[in-house]
Amino acid sequence: MGTAFRPARTSPASWDAFANVDAFVDAVLAELTAMAVDGTRSARSGPKPPLTGTALRRAIMAIWCVCFCGMQWRAIGLLCDIAFGTLYTLFARWTRLGLWRRLLDRLILAWRQACGDKPVSSAVIVDSRSCQSAPTCFTRGFDGGKKIKGIKIHLAVDKYGFPLAINVSPANRHDSRGIVPVLHQLAGRGFKGTALGDLSYRGQRLSKAGKALGITIQPSAGGHDGTFIPQGIRWVVERSLGWVSRYRRLNIIFERTEAHLVAFIEIAFISILSRRLVRLATQEISA
């Protein structure tokens, strides 16, 4: 499972999330249009007309700023001159309609095609990250190993580091238990293959649960004496968790529902992917 892969060609540049915010906004607008066409997104009913044009672009950018900058809804509402209740309602409604997961799936597929890879991954890499949470968060637990009181994010990513399944749990839940909902999500998406992970995913109970879903759990040591040692493609999930840490809303968790936390994780990866795809398209045009 440690074979090399050819990533899509992108120019080396310093990491700047603000460089292509318009790419994120354009991607969300395109997905909203597609959802309206296929009937997934019904017209909103209410006394106030829905946001359109420039106001809608500002609202989408404001949601991105909440994720990346860690701003409060009230603060970003004042800055963009849109009532914070309107912004939060938009975010909650789009989350309920599955906008973020649908858009992320489309971008992952586009990236895999740009890399000349198959649409369906044959292997995934799983890992978790414990994050501190506020007392108002939907749940809390104490991770004794990392001395963190909060929640734990469980990811299953492809070899490019983009998430195919996400789950969140209290930080005191062991990785071998927290990853089970992720395996069910993968199975629901039709994944049949190998899940690579560290030694936290050992055990007959998890192995049997994986086999029942058609997924083979393959744990292996990822380090020695506290030193991380890259093994095959196992390292890509560590990079994905590093990407997530750059988005401040995902460093200290304030969300009161699991769905909203998962939505912000998806928004972070949508931001990364949309920026990469725009940069790739620009290179192809100039070539």
Quick recap of the structure?
The protein has 287 residues and is of the alpha/beta class. 47% of the residues lie in helices and 17% in strands. The longest helix is centred in the last third of the chain and has 29 residues, at 258-286.
Overview of the molecule:
With 287 residues, this protein is an alpha/beta fold. The protein has a domain at 119-257: 2-Layer Sandwich (Nucleotidyltransferase, domain 5). It has ten helices and nine strands. Strands 1, 2, 3, 4, 5, 6 and 9 form a seven-stranded mixed β-sheet that branches. Helix 1 packs across helix 2 (53-69), helix 1 packs across helix 5 (99-114) and helix 1 crosses helix 10 (258-286). The radius of gyration is 19 Å and the shape is globular. It starts with 20 loop residues before the first helix and ends with a helix. 35% of the residues are buried.
Quote the distance from N terminus to C terminus.
33 Å
CATH topology of the domain at 119-257: Nucleotidyltransferase, domain 5
Low-confidence stretches: none
The CATH architecture assignment of the domain at 119-257 turns out to be 2-Layer Sandwich
Instruction: Look at the structure and name the CATH superfamily of the domain at 119-257.
Output: Ribonuclease H-like superfamily/Ribonuclease H
Beta percentage is 15-25%
